[in-house]
């Protein structure tokens, strides 16, 4: 065993300098000789048929190379089913691909692709295209069609059943001492990573290379290959740098395939970048939703029944809802439970993953209701949660692989100063501001990939190593963290290791979705690097000229690239010496990892606890978050800085969800009201309070070799609820909607 030296350190990003000095090249930064530029023209109506497209004027504009519409764009070869990219399969974001006929299903649906020799000329020509529609009535909001709701068999690409039950919820509610019924309304949310989605497509004969902003190069590769009728080996996807994603680059939308088709059509490399406005209509969104809860408890606050229903709009093509009922059904011991999803068909694209997809919205409803229960029974909110603590996943009865939830409550409360909270609403003032304190529990599942995950490790005779796996780094810090993992497994200092990813030519890794990246990629990298180390140690032992010849491999350790006897560190040699002596320029190993079959006997979840202090101006209705504390138990922490940044980003996202983020449909025009960062509000530095993160390491021997449970999304879960609960504590008002705005607090 090597001693873990790099793992856990707050190492700076190895690519940080590149990112802030312009050295990092994103998908839209690719330049080719003879490059052409494509822009998409979207439908202005939400429902109907294209009756005529007049491209005459546009075709005569300077520099225009082609205009592709449903009349001349080649039909796709296949329509792959909606599948989550988690499994490393084709992952189209919706089963609908535009341009197959003249029907318009949603506003913004692409109806033309304009290709020109410069971006500006393509944009200009796009503005000259005249499209006539025969418009038909549209449905874009819940209120327009709630009577038409249906119960789908499954949601979330088929992975989550439409209905889940345990025990007898009606009987449980009937015998409860206390019952709370509450309905929650949520605005739709739109993804706004700094980098809009972009694809640069280049053909070399029949070989396609795509530079694509994606969470998974294999997902893009397999989806585009299926759509174009190509064998995947003919499609290479490169994604070295991605400027954020948050789920909108997890599923593969139409634009990568359209860039490839346009490039083939004009016989030149083509760059297609979505505009900020198109990001609102081209890469999915978090759906508008309504959740209702009926919660029954005994006098001591122990839950006896929970009914949790959700109603939301989906597209005409797919039964999609974010799985809002999941974590909220697993967090507390409760014998009687019923969770039901209901959907309406709407003229939107299929909604998609958006950070903590479902976990955050479902836990908002549950954790606000738990706060009401605590208030009604006069029990401290943390004490109430401890009374309902579950040692097992209530849906299966399986024990948790590890928890740490109680420590999160305790250490979070200490750090926050929870004991100073006055449970009486409106009891704490700071000048004109009403001050309130709230908390909520957090949880996010640990997902394991269904396919083996692979990585390759290579050591050079100069004593440096490179470790490779196909994953892109979309801002999570995975490049840095995997360098740390490789360094420890190989027994090398960090600065002699390098991680390479973001290329489908490298060993396959599933798309990093569902907070699974750190766990599954570290598993593959650790396995590959450990195999390489073992291979080198075995070679030294077999080498008659090595000081380690004939040693017991179990007694050999590696530090700073030097293999040595644990009991006699003076006996040993460096990796480099071994390779030089044997005339080897390098040595290589490939490692493969799959979750162990026994992991299905466990519930696997990252737990946490959120605390917030808010100040509300009762005259102006302004709510400000003054402090947030989050305590999380993510298994092993690979890098305290990047893990802390992920969690802090999640908590601030929760602040946005609580107070700012909203999109809505204009029911008359069937279009999103917000279509820029000027009217779609996200927290800026001035909104960001002091955020403190408490990391609680728990040992987990089930999830993966290093016991990593993931930090990408759990930071958001419960954050909005803690804020809403603090607003209640400050004002006595229970606001059951997101976001909470001035009108709610006046
Ligand atoms: Mo994450 S919203 O599963 O990409």
UniProtKB/TrEMBL annotation:
This protein's record includes keyword Amino-acid biosynthesis: no
Pfam families membership: Ald_Xan_dh_C, MoCoBD_1, MoCoBD_2
Q: Where is the Aldehyde oxidase/xanthine dehydrogenase a/b hammerhead domain?
A: 21-137
Keyword DNA-binding applies: no
Give the matching InterPro entries.
Ald_Oxase/Xan_DH_a/b, Ald_Oxase/Xan_DH_a/b_sf, Ald_Oxase/xanthine_DH-like, AldOxase/xan_DH_MoCoBD1, AldOxase/xan_DH_MoCoBD2, AldOxase/xan_DH_Mopterin-bd_sf
Superkingdom, natural source: Bacteria
Q: Which Gene3D superfamilies does the entry link to?
A: Aldehyde oxidase/xanthine dehydrogenase, a/b hammerhead, Aldehyde oxidase/xanthine dehydrogenase, molybdopterin binding domain
Q: Which UniProt keywords apply?
A: Molybdenum, Oxidoreductase
Recorded protein name is Xanthine dehydrogenase family protein molybdopterin-binding subunit
Q: Which organism is it from?
A: Streptomyces halobius
């Amino acid at each position: 065993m090597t001693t873990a030296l790099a793992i856990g350190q707050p190492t700076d990003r190895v690519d940080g300098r590149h990112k802030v000095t312009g050295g990092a090249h994103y998908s839209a930064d690719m330049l080719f000789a003879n490059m052409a530029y494509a822009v998409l023209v979207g439908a202005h109506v939400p429902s109907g048929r294209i009756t005529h497209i007049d491209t005459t004027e546009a075709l005569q504009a300077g520099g225009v190379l082609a205009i592709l519409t449903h009349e001349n764009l080649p039909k796709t070869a296949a329509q792959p089913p909606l599948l989550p990219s988690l499994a490393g399969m084709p992952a189209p974001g919706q089963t609908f691909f535009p341009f197959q006929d003249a029907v318009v299903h949603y506003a913004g649906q692409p109806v033309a692709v304009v290709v020109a020799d410069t971006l500006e000329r393509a944009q200009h020509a796009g503005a000259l295209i005249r499209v006539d529609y025969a418009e038909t009535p549209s449905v874009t909001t819940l209120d327009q069609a709630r009577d038409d709701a249906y119960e789908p068999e499954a949601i979330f690409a088929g992975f989550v059943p439409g209905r889940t039950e345990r025990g007898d919820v009606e009987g449980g509610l009937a015998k409860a001492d206390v019952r709370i019924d509450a309905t929650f309304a949520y605005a739709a949310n739109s993804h706004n990573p700094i980098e809009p989605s972009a694809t640069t497509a280049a053909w070399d004969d029949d070989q396609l290379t795509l530079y694509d902003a994606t969470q998974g190069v294999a997902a893009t590769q397999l989806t585009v290959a299926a759509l174009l009728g190509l064998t995947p080996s003919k499609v290479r996807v490169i994604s070295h740098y991605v400027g954020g994603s948050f789920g909108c680059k997890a599923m593969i939308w139409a634009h990568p395939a359209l860039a490839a088709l346009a490039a083939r059509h004009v016989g030149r490399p083509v760059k297609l970048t979505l505009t900020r406005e198109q990001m609102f209509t081209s890469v999915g969104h978090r759906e508008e939703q309504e959740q209702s809860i009926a919660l029954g408890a005994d006098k001591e606050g122990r839950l006896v029944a929970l009914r949790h229903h959700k109603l939301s709009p989906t597209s005409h093509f797919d039964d999609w809802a974010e799985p809002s009922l999941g974590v909220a059904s697993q967090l507390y011991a409760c014998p009687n439970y019923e969770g039901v999803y209901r959907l309406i068909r709407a003229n939107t694209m299929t909604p998609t993953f958006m950070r903590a997809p479902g976990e955050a919205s479902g836990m908002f409803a549950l954790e606000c209701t738990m706060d009401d229960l605590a208030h009604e029974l006069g029990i401290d909110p943390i004490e109430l949660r401890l009374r309902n603590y579950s040692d097992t996943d209530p849906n299966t009865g399986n024990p948790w692989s590890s928890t740490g939830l109680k420590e999160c409550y305790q250490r979070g409360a200490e750090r926050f100063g929870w004991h100073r909270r006055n449970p009486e609403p409106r009891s704490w003032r700071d000048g004109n501001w009403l001050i309130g304190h709230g908390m909520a529990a957090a949880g996010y599942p640990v997902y394991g990939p269904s396919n083996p995950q692979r990585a390759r490790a290579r050591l050079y005779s100069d004593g440096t190593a490179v470790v490779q796996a196909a994953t892109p780094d979309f801002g999570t810090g995975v490049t840095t963290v995997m360098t740390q993992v490789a360094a420890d497994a190989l027994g090398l200092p960090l600065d002699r290791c390098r991680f390479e990813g973001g290329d489908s030519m490298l060993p396959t890794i599933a798309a990093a979705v569902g907070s699974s990246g750190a766990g599954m990629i570290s598993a593959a990298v650790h396995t590959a690097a450990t195999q390489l180390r073992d291979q080198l140690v075995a070679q030294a032992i077999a080498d008659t000229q090595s000081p380690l010849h004939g040693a017991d491999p179990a007694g050999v350790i590696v530090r700073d690239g030097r293999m040595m006897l644990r009991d006699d560190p003076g006996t040993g040699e460096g990796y480099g010496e071994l390779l030089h002596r044997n005339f080897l320029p390098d040595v290589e190993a490939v490692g493969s990892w799959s979750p162990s079959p026994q992991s299905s006997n466990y519930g696997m979840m990252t737990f946490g606890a959120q605390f917030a202090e808010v100040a509300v101006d009762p005259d102006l209705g302004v709510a400000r978050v003054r402090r947030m504390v989050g305590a999380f138990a993510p298994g092993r922490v690979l890098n305290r800085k990047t893990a802390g940044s992920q969690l802090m980003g999640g908590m601030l996202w929760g602040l946005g969800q609580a107070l700012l983020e909203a999109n809505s449909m204009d029911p008359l025009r069937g279009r999103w009201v917000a279509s820029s960062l000027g009217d779609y509000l996200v927290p800026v530095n001035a909104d960001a309070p002091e955020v403190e993160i408490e990391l609680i390491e728990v040992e987990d021997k089930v999830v993966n070799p290093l016991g990593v449970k993931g930090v990408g999304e759990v930071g958001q879960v419960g954050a909005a609820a803690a804020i809403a609960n603090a607003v209640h504590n400050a004002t006595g008002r229970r606001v059951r909607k997101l976001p909470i705005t001035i009108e709610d607090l006046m």
